[in-house]
Amino acid sequence: MECQTPKEKNKLAIRFLAVGEQIYEGDEVTQETVDHLLQQIQTEQVVSGYLSLDEYGEDGDDFLTIDKKDGWAALAFNTWDEDGIAHLYQPVAQDDHTQEQAPVFIGGQTPVLKRNALCDVQTIVDCILYFAKTGKPAPNLE
After folding, report:
1. CA 91 distance to own-chain centroid
2. Total structural domains in the chain?
3. pLDDT at residue 122 greater than cutoff 60
4. Does some domain include residue 7?
5. What are the beta bridge partners of residue 77?
6. Angle at 92 between CA 53 and CA 128, to 5 degrees
7. Within 13 A of 113's CA, how many CA atoms are on the CB side?
């Protein structure tokens, strides 16, 4: 699974970023803060993150959550339709159809199957960066 990012490098769609306990809002969300999150993901220094299109991270706008544990990541893209019904999208590994659980949980409590979790660090980083720049789920989040 590979996620291609748009060509515009410094344009971000997100307006809110939480990395562990650190929160960035509005103009505090920069390419540097996103790069910091990605670097922490790559070096296993962060176990959770939250990126939102809303400046205050409020529900009602699309957002992406990241939870990591033991080299696995659960990415969850959350959105609402025009009727206000929430939808959650996760990656789907086409080559793994097992019902085995990954060691990571969404929000620390919702179990994730290995077929819906990622263990390739570069794919995780690419998908987070794609959302940060476009506000949309990476093409492999269904």
Report:
1. 10
2. 1
3. yes
4. no
5. 64, 89
6. 30
7. 12
Beta bridge partners of 15: none
In a domain, 10, yes or no: no
Query: Could you list the residue range(s) of the whole structural domain that residue 24 is in?
Result: 16-134
d(CA 96, CA 100): 10
Q: Is residue 1 part of a domain?
A: no
* Residue recorded with tokens 């515009």: 8
Each residue of 64-111: pLDDT tens digit? 999 999 989 999 999 988 898 988 888 887 666 678 999 999 988 899
Burial level of 129, CB count in 10 A (0-12/13-18/19+)?
A: buried
- The residue count for the chain: 142
Decide: residue 119, CB within 10 A, 0-12 exposed, 13-18 middle, 19+ buried: middle
39 occurs within a structural domain: yes
Does the pTM surpass 0.90? The reply is no
